[in-house]
Specification:
The complex is a heterodimer. By secondary structure, chain A is α/β, with parallel strands linked by helices. Chain A has 22 helices and 22 strands. The chains are: A alpha/beta, B alpha/beta.
Amino acid sequence: MKQLMLGNAAVARGLYEAGCCVISSYPGTPSTEITEEAVKYPEIYCEWAPNEKVAMETAFGACLAGKRSFCAMKHVGLNVAADPLYTMSYTGVNAGMVIGVADDPGMHSSQNEQDSRHHAIAAKVPMLEPSDSAEALAFAKLAYELSEEFDTPVLLKMCTRVAHSQSIVETADRAECAVKPYEKNIAKYVMMPGNAIRRHPFVEERARKLQAWAETAPVNRVEMGGTKIGIITSSTSYQYVKEVFGDTVSVLKLGLANPLPVKLIQDFARKVEKLVVVEEMDPIIENHCKVLGLAVSGKDVLPMEGEFSQNLIAEKLGGEVHTGRTIADPIPPRPPVMCAGCPHRGLFYTLSKNKCTVLGDIGCYTLGAVAPLAAMDMTLCMGASISAVHGFNKALGAGSEGRTVAVIGDSTFMHSGMTGLANIAYNQSNSTVIILDNSITGMTGHQQNPTTGYNIKGDPAGKIDLEALCKAMGFARVRVVDPYDLKECDAAIKEELAVNEPSVIISRRPCALLKYVKHEAPLAVDPVKCVGCRSCMKIGCPAISIKEGKARVDATLCVGCGVCQQLCGVKAFQSAKKEG
Amino acid sequence: METKNIMIVGVGGQGSLLASKLLGHLLMEQGFDVKVSEVHGMSQRGGSVVTYVRYGDRVDSPVIDKGEADYIVSFELLEAARWLSYLKPDGQIVTSTQQIDPMPVITGAASYPEDLVEKMRSAGAKVDALDCLKLAEEAGSAKAVNIVLMGRLSHYFDLPDEAWQKSLEAMVPPKFLELNKKAFELGKKA
C-alpha cells in the first residue's frame, strides 16, 4: 500500500517488515520517532533505555540470543555508544543487528554538527544512507540482510531532512524470522586479548568483502545525463542535486556510506569531464576520491557547516538561483523560549538573582542560558554538568564552592549524571547539584524515563527514587523544592551553597505541557496597580509583555504558575478567575 | 506538472504539523508525488517554525528555498514577514493577523514592526490577511486556527470540496471533527 510516511516512521516500518523483535533506544532529535513509531507494532518489543550505550548493549544481547534487534540514537548518542560499537565490530552478530543514527546538519536541535560517518569508518562497520522515506524503509530491511551475511552490526544513517520529511513509501507484510539458536562461542563473543587478536583479522577480511560488495551494491547507482559535470552525492544532498540539475549532469548516488566503492567511482570519473562531490558536513567521499588520485571539487566551493539547499547548490555550482522580496523593517528574531509555566523558570531566576555560576546540561532547560535569565555558564554534553562542577570546585576550592552549581534534568541525570555524582561522593568535593525533575524527557517530546514510573507504552514500570539514590551514594543533604515557590528555592540554594558538604537539590514539578498537569486560571494585570517597574520581565515569560507602560498577560499562554506574582511589589497580578 | 510549493510558518506549538498532514493527505489522494518537511525538537519551544509541503509529478528536494513558494500560509504576522523572501514573485500569502511578541520584543531589545500587511503588499506580495484566531474561537476552539487557515487556502486550489472534507475526516480525531469542519467553513467563507 502507498502511504505518505515520515522518514523515521519508514525506518520503523522497515524494521517491522524485516522481522525485528527487540528495540532499545534513547530519545534524541532527530532520531526519536523511529522508536515511537516502532512501538505501535505489537510484534516488536520496544523500550527507552537510560542511555545509548545501554540501548546498544541491550540490542546486542537480543541479537546474540538470536532475534533481529535495533537501537536508535542521535549523532552524539553514538559517541556514548561508541564503546560497544567498536568491539561489536569484532564479535559480529548472531541474528541481525542494526543501529539507527541520525545526524543534525544545521543543528536544529543539537550541540554540535559532527558527521557520524567517521564512526562507521573507524569501527569498520558498514553504513547505509537513505535519501528519502522509500529508501529509509528499503535500507532498513537491507541492513539486516547485510548484518547476517557479513556477520556485522550495520549502521543506518539518517539526517534531519530524511528523518523529518514525509515522502511516499510502498509497504509490505512482515516476514517473521526464525530464532537463530544461540550457541556458546567463547572465541567469537568473549573479547579478551587472546580472542580479540584472532578476531581482528576477521574484521579486516570482512572489510575487504564489503569493499567488493560496494562495487556492485544496488544501493549505489549511476544516473547518466550530461557528461560535462559528474556529481557524486548521497543522502538529502542527492535530492538537492536532482532538484537543481535534473538530467543535465550525471550523478553517482551512493547509498552505502561505508565502505565507499573504488572501481565504481573510477569508472564514473572517466565518463565525465569534471568531477564534483556534493556532501553535507565533512569531505569523506571527497577525500576518498583524492586518495584514489582523482581530480575532484567539493569543499573548495561547498561549506562544511550547516545544511545544503537547492539555492546553495545552484549558487556554488552554477545553477539558477531563486530570490524573493523583502521589506525594509528589521525582523526581530524569534528564538525558542521556555514555555509559559515552565517549572525551570523559577529555579533559573533564583540562580540568576544569586549570581551563581551554573554548569548546565542538555535539555529544554538549556534555554535558561537565554536572556533575560542568562543563568547558565556552560553546556557541553549529557551529564557534563555534574562532573564539571566537581572539577570547577576542585580547581578553585572555597573560591567557587559557595556560588557554583550543576543543573541537570531527570532524564539526563539517569543518562549519565549518576556517574558524575558518584565522583563527587567518592572524591569529596563540596559541590551543589540541582536535579531539575520535571518528571519526563521534555526536549524530545515527552518520553518516559526511569524516574517517571512508566514505560514507553505508558504502562506502569519500575521507578527510581531520586532521593533514595542520592542518599545511597552518600549525600547526607538531599532536599526537594517546588520551583514555583521562589522563596523556598532561594532559601534552599543559599543554604546548600553555604554548607561545607556536598548536597543535592531536587527541583520538582512536572513539565507544564504534560496532559495530566492541571493548570490554575490565567493571571491578569490590574492596570491601576501596575507601576510599570518591569520586575515581572526579569523571568522572560512569553505570556508577559509591556504594553503602553504596563505589564500585560496573554491569557491564551498563561497557566497561572504565579512566579510573576511573587515578583510584583504592588500585587498587580490577580487570578482572572477570581476577578470574573 | 511543475512542482508546487506551500510553506506553513508560525510559532512553535501553534499546530502547523496537523496542517501539513492534512495537505500531505489531500495532495497524495490527488495522485501527486508529495514531500513534507517538518522541524521537531528545540525550535518547537516557542521559536519560529516552518513546514514545507511540495507536490507535483516528481518532487526531489524536501525543502523550499528563497523565491520558490507558491503559497505561504502563516499563523502569525511577523512570521509571514520573516519568510517573505521565500515567496515566488507571483506567490500568495495567506496569513492570520494574530501577533505574538518574540522574546526580544518582550524584553524591549527589539520592536514589532507596524503595518506588516501593507508593507508586504508594497513589496509586491499578494496578501490575504484575516483574523483566524477570532474565527477559530467562533468555531469552538482557539486551537483550530490551523484548520481556519486551511479553509482559507482552499480558495486558491482548484479542488472539489469533498476532497478537503475527506482529508479532514482522515486526519482529525472524530471527537474534534465537527469543530474542525466548522473552522474550515469559516475560513473558507471569510
